[in-house]
Amino acid sequence: MMTHIGVEAIQDEVRRLICHGLVRPSTAIAQLRCYFSGREWCAIEQELLDQDYQMGDAISDLLGCQEWSED
């Protein structure tokens, strides 16, 4: 059985990836796939789609209004 991953947990992990310089806020959400196992990504993708995010949306759309010095 697949564990539900909430959007807040996804956002926290994405913030961590940005802080470590692994992704940029302007990157498409779909590019996050390579940082998660297949099972994790399936759950993440489903949660984001359920929340009306599209895989082509920028990561910054997922995180909302924040200032990013890297971008």
Q: Helix and strand layout, with pairings?
A:
Elements: H1 7-19, H2 38-50, H3 59-63
Uncertain segments are none
From the helix content, strand content and strand pairing, which structural class follows?
Answer: mainly alpha
- Number of H- or I-type helical stretches: 3
The total tally of domains equals: 1
The main sheet comes to: none
User: How many beta strands in the DSSP annotation?
Assistant: 0
Tell me what you see in this structure:
- With 71 residues, this protein is mainly alpha-helical.
- It has one domain.
- The protein has helices spanning 7-19, 38-50, 59-63.
Quick overview of this protein structure:
The protein is mostly helical and about 70 residues long. The chain has three helices and no strands.
Descriptive labels:
single chain, 71 residues, mainly alpha, 44% helix, 0% strand
